[in-house]
Amino acid sequence: MPRTSNARQNLIEAAARLFQANGFHATGLNLILEESGAPKGSFYHHFPGGKDELAVAAMTWSSLEIERFIDEAFTPAKNFGVGARALGTRLADWFEASGFAEGCPIASVLLETAPGSDDLRLQALSVFDRWIDLIESHAKRLAHDKPRQSAEALMMGLEGAWLLARARQSRKPFQVAVASVLGR
Fold first, then answer.
1. What is the DSSP string of 29-77?
2. Can you tell me the distance from the alpha carbon of 144 to that of 73, in angstroms, rounded to the nearest whole number?
3. pTM
4. Smallest Cα–Cα separation from 125: which of 109, 148, 136, 137?
5. DSSP label at 24?
6. Has residue 64 got a pLDDT over 90?
7. Residues 6 or more apart from 73 whose CB is under 8 A from it?
8. Which residues of 24-43 are buried (b: 16+ CB within 10 A; e: fewer)?
């Protein structure tokens, strides 16, 4: 019976964490291999397209965590504002717990690779669109009056909050971003 390997998943998770904390270019293959515990041959076997192909997989995997945060914030919410505040708080808690080191897992790759890599740009766009669509679906369920506009504004505000929160080493930009979207 063939032995199953976790090498592919270990590579994806290690790359996602490292890209998020260090950025795409500062994260070399040797560091990914060391963090994942996977042999170099596994990397080339699972990702013949190289680091860009691994980054696409890492962005996909990372997006699931944010999708979970979105659902956990909005599912129990009584209205859009409650869900938006819960999401902002959840992201601020996560970011603060990382010492303001783990920024948006998608933006950390996108900012360093676009416009040079169309594959990574398109993957980032796909992920951002999924997040916006998910927020919009919750906004519609909660009978919010401008579901698409508010979903996009919330996503843009939270992305900006990640940057300003890192610069300020403060969670406050997340609160300001949500308040701005809600008009408060």
1. HHHHHHHHT--HHHHHHH-TT-HHHHHHHHHHHHHHHHHHHHHHHHTT-
2. 15
3. 0.91
4. 109
5. S
6. yes
7. 83, 84, 86, 87, 90
8. beebebeebbebbebeeebb
